[in-house]
Amino acid sequence: MADTGENSALFPVFILSIIALPLVPYTILKILRATSKKEKSIHCECSVCSRSGKYHESIFRRISKFSTCSNFTVLLLWVIVGFLVYSIKQSSREIEAFDPFSILGLEPGVSESVIKKAYRRLSIQYHPDKNPDPAANKYFVEYISKAYQALTDPVSRENFEKYGHPDGRQGFQMGIALPQFMLDFNGASSGILLIWILGGFVLLPMAFGVVYLSRASKYGGSYIRRETLATYFELVKPSLAPSKIMDVFIKAAEFMDIPVRRADDEPLQELFKLVKSELNLDGKNARQEQAKFWKQHPAIVKAELLIQAHLLRKADTFSSNLQQDYKHVLQLTPRLLEGLIKMATVPRTAKGHSWLRPAIGTVELSQCIIQAVPLSARKAGSGSSDGVASLLQLPHFSDAVITKIAKKVRTLQNLQDMTLQERAELLSDVAGLSAAEVQDVEKVLELMPRATIEVTCETEGEEGIQEGDIVTVQAWVALRRANGLIKALPHAPYYPFSKGENFWFLLADANSNDVWFSESIKFMDEAAAITTASAITEAKMEASGANMEEIAAAVKDAVAKVKSGCRLVLGKIQAPQAGTYNLNSHLMCDTWIGCDTKTNLKLKILKRIRAGSRGGHVAEGVQEENDVEDEDDIEEDEEGDQSEYSEDEDEDEDEDEDDEADKKNNTNRKGFANGSARRKGRK
């Protein structure tokens, strides 16, 4: 066993190794991330967004970005590493191997006379009679005298030259790199060591594990509380109108943590008066509805009032305390809305379908919050399914401006279809906007996305789709902007945080309110999109029996499409009973109003005649030709496209009647078949 002094000297080496093993690679990773040239997301450059200041990084914001808990921890650990290195360097002499030749400043193999001369020379320098320094005395006794004795004694010298030690061959020594106080505590070294082992290697990791698991058990995907997801799952109903989505959204458990202060009572009462018309509390039973509203949890009331005030663009009137709470609420909003969309698209029916109305309503609520447009502005009218909401998101547009241009422009699409000169004349001469303000409008119009969807549905390896087949749904979604960009942040000057565009693809049957397939699409991450498209294309080509050259060419084409602004969506659904289905493929953006795309898709499914059906019916006879109906030029049904915000918001459908209607719709629907549809984006 090594002596305790050597054990203590090795303890810093042990600690240094434990810290350095994870610290060095983690630091390298952080440096590489910080120094890597990331492509900057291009944001709106209109004057309204510039004045918002959220894209301008001041010196204080940069310092706050660096001053994170993670960075401070890394810096502290490197300080500890530096201290340990210095400590090891200072104590290195204590653990050096005993080398008498080196101590006397001689080369190995010199004669005894040379050794004596060296000893006398060092004695003059370090002998206690010549040098009163205690350190010199210690060095002379512990090193010089021992080295001289080892080299002048024939046996000791021979042992040293043979075995590297004056005492001859040494046995293998083991030690514990722990400090002395842990190994010797009033004779109870074993007990102290056991306590440290249990504490450092058992209890401490268990404590960290318990804390981590306790926190992880509270949160689901996207760092949303499980309590919130359960509440959303319970409150989302098939008949939930878009105008009622807000009532579900504010029930999030995260909003319960908002502080409720007595000082906020009066400002909240003023906010209530301001947003009262948006709360739909002015009906026949206004008093009862208002009393019911105030009986909710105070934090929930506060959150809804803050959000409604944001939709009316009244956030600049908040006090400092309300400003803090307001920003906290809006910071939580994107991930809570994403969680609500996922709960709305969770399969609920026996056929594995979810519900269309709450899914659309949640995306439309997200659009209004990002653009700070009141929900009442979405009421259909003036020929637009989005009401005036799509126009209110434009810079310098107000109700007064919209009224002035109403004779020539009733929808966002009307404004986009104009030439640059026609728009400039309309906005300057009729609406009264300045040249700079007209330029701001043009910048935002150029930034708005236009989408094209190409959807195909097929049974892999088969001519047509029969009932019970596993149907592959494939959609290529292409995004285009007038300014040529693919990845860009939306125009959202009133939303205080940076928010990227997310799109939701929904394959749905509007008649039965069923969503057959849903998927989230993000255009910001091109690398992930290339990986996904390559893997899907390669697997599909391999399944079709293509050779390596054909597979490589198909993957190359898919990668080129992704780089040009396309994203590939793939999913599988089970075909129901034989029949014809009129489906819609929706592509909805969660940040822009009026940029959603809807494609009509009529698909057929045939009776089961193939063997090995999955729960399908095997029928005899000849299979009919499987017709594919492309509907590129389908006329839009304006009434069907109107926003559901235009409905009477006091009307609550009876759930029993809704379920009965749902059963009838499911009975009428018979199947799903091969088909494809391609449609350009509609504003």
UniProtKB/TrEMBL annotation:
One of its GO terms (molecular function) is protein transmembrane transporter activity. It is a multi-pass membrane protein. GO terms for biological process: post-translational protein targeting to endoplasmic reticulum membrane; SRP-dependent cotranslational protein targeting to membrane. The keyword Signal does not apply. Residues 614-683 are annotated as: Disordered. The chain crosses the membrane at residues 12-32, 69-88, 191-213. PROSITE patterns: DNAJ_2. Residues 622-660 have a biased composition (Acidic residues). One of its GO terms (cellular component) is Sec62/Sec63 complex. Signal peptide: none annotated. Keywords: Chaperone, Endoplasmic reticulum, Membrane, Protein transport, Transmembrane, Transmembrane helix, Transport. It is found in: Endoplasmic reticulum membrane. InterPro entries: C2_domain_sf, DnaJ_domain, Ig_E-set, J_dom_sf, Sec63-dom. Residues 99-164 form the J domain. PANTHER family: DNAJ PROTEIN ERDJ2A-LIKE (PTHR24075:SF11), SEC63 DOMAIN-CONTAINING (PTHR24075). This is J domain-containing protein.
